[in-house]
Amino acid sequence: MMSWLASLLINTIALMVVAGYFDGFHIENISAALLASVLLSLFNVFLKPILILLTLPVTIFSLGLFLIVINAALLSLTAELMGNSFNIDGFGMALLAAVIISLLNMFLTNFVLEPIKKRRKRK
After folding, report:
1. Which residues does UniProt assign to the signal peptide (predicted)?
2. d(CA 85, CA 72)
3. Distances (CA, A) of 30 to 21, 106, 120
């Protein structure tokens, strides 16, 4: 449970960072970012495996790069469901945001969350 909450927090921070740097990516407030993070995590759990399975030949042929397109599509779907509180201007912006959010998630997980977990295990 704590791991899922930490993941949500990291994803929320990543969404807010991207929204702060790009005009084509707008999140109204932190509660909208948190809701978008919840929706995106639900899509990643339930829809992403189905999309990966359906696009497996393309994903293999592209050496896994098509996964970025799937992430961008799920991010766009999240923005559509959120209405005016979360907007992405075009699929190109969604692709760029998906890459940056993935990199930020990886960075925050490996360099912030993991050291905290290691400190707790030592105590």
Report:
1. none
2. 18
3. 15, 21, 28
Here the tokens at position 103 are 């990199």
Confidence of residue 119 (pLDDT cuts 50, 70, 90): confident
91 close to 17: Cβ distance less than 8 angstroms:
no
| Partner residues linked to 87 by β-bridges | 26
For range 33-60, the mean pLDDT: 96
Q: Is 86 exposed, middle or buried (0-12, 13-18, 19+ CB in 10 A)?
A: buried
> Is-contact 74 101, C-beta < 8 A?
no
Residue 61 tokens read as 């042929």
| DSSP label of 70 | H
> Comparing 42-46, 93-97, 117-121, which segment has the lowest mean pLDDT?
117-121
* 86-88 and 25-27 beta bridge pairing: antiparallel
pLDDT in tens, 57-74: 999 999 999 999 999 999
Structure tokens at 43: 């899509």
Distance CA 96, CA 108 (A): 18
